[in-house]
Amino acid sequence: QMMKFAWDNYRQYALGKNELRPLSRNGHIGNMFGGLRGATVIDALDTLYIMELEEEFQEAKQWVEKSFDLNVNGEASLFEVNIRYIGGLLATYYLTGDEVFKSKALELGEKLLPAFNTPTGIPRGVINLGSGMSWSWGWASAGSSILAEFGTLHLEFLHLSELSGNPVFAEKATQLCLSPQVMNIRRVLSRVEKPQGLYPNFLSPVTGSWVQHHVSIGGLGDSFYEYLIKSWLMSDKKDSEAKKMYDDALEAIEKHLVKKSAGGLTYIAEWRGGILDHKMGHLACFSGGMIALGAQHGPEDRRQRHMELAAEITSTCHESYTRSDTKLGPEAFRFDAGSEATATRLSERYYILRPEVVESYMYLWRLTHDPKYRHWGWDVVQALEKHCRVESGFSGIRDVYTTTPTHDNMQQSFFLAETLKYLYLLFCEDDVLSLEDWVFNTEAHPLPINHTDFKA
Ligand code: DMJ
Predict the structure, then answer these.
(1) How much is the mean pLDDT over the chain?
(2) Which residues are 329's β-sheet partners?
């Protein structure tokens, strides 16, 4: 019902725009997708299909067939186009077998390739989909590329290669750091000196070296780690290089970033050139699910330790929800100056319908069957209904610490792709998109396991 409500309002007031503005009842285009439209359509397709909202799925499919225009000219985020559009189209192709989704994914994939024309092969973050010109984000230090962006292409690009028969995509994803001396990004990343074994978030696409020593499992770093373990799973556990990189990275994170607060809450801090920032972003809350997923494989003592860590982090993220008045969590919460899993800055009190906490509930439920995860998920459903549902859709809120929050007038496309999908899967049988057969890309679009022969 929540999905139908979110979709119906988007379709009625904003079809073809990127997101619905549910208070003003119009569409939002934004500047992340380079002139592409319909981000909500593409992000919603597989969720509608999985939920058996047949009529709504057909509406979305028709829009893709008749109105989805790829001949656009504008500045796009390589990362966002990949995870939302390519991921959404690929997943829907695999679920339905409808060729239109495959051909659109391949066509769009081709348009992303010029971003990789850099001295190292590390792509830049922004690309003009018309001209193929690419550049780094203005806000990224010294023209750097972002770990979570160039590290979050692998799953989709392997499938593009598999489906097109063109190895170029797999090569781009696996040889992101091609330079005369270096064969691929993983080799470069294993050679480049890593402070304390940690991966900083900013890398120069020109020199292939770190530009700044900020490490985070939240924003700017997050899905790089996620794609390592998922690359291994998607390869049917053949891509041992990815597994080793994941294991080593997690070991360094455990050693240097995992902390316990005075009140006994486990959290993952951020690291700035050796100094810890005792903060977790909402985005970092996906890590409970990731660590639980990765924990299933390996020696028993390690499995147990990682399952405990995953459960503790998920519980801390749950605390960030329960300690607010709305029972929804803030954008970032801290463990300093007497605060414990609460936001201390006004600018971090908002909630924009993000999925990461329910994502971890879904993984922890599937992997432990502890009923508390369903209870926690149900609390989120109720909080969303109470505080985020408005007359014409769902909206983010500006302050989770008041029971009369102001709405931000935005129904994010990831709410339909991820938040509602993970909530639905939390209450489904385990064989609906079984973790044995599917990996979810970082936008919750399911991709089949063992579907590719391209090895890293
Ligand atoms: C999503 O677009 C993806 O999950 C991405 O990896 C980071 N966060 C947003 C939603 O919060």
Answers:
(1) 93
(2) none
Q: Is the pLDDT of residue 186 over 90?
A: no
pLDDT of residue 451: 52
CA separation for the pair 159, 82 (Å, rounded): 12
To test the pocket of ligand 1, the residue of 78, 156, 442 to mutate (highest count of ligand atoms within 8 Å of its CB) is 442
- Residue having the nearest C-alpha atom to atom 3 of ligand 1: 443
Give the position, in ligand 1's atom list, of the atom nearest the Cα of 226. 6
Q: Are 103 and 86 in contact (CB under 8 A)?
A: no
Say if residue 153's pLDDT is above 70. yes
Ligand 1 proximity of 223 Cβ (cutoff 6 Å):
yes
CA of 329 to the centre of ligand 1 (A): 15
Q: Which domains does the chain have, with CATH numbers?
A: 2-448 (1.50.10.10)
- Residue 334 buriedness (CB in 10 A; 0-12 / 13-18 / 19+): buried
Residue 231, both tokens: 């690359």
Cα 180 to middle of ligand 1, angstroms: 34
Strand ranges inside 304-445, DSSP E: 332-334, 389-390, 393-394, 438-440
Full-model pTM: 0.96
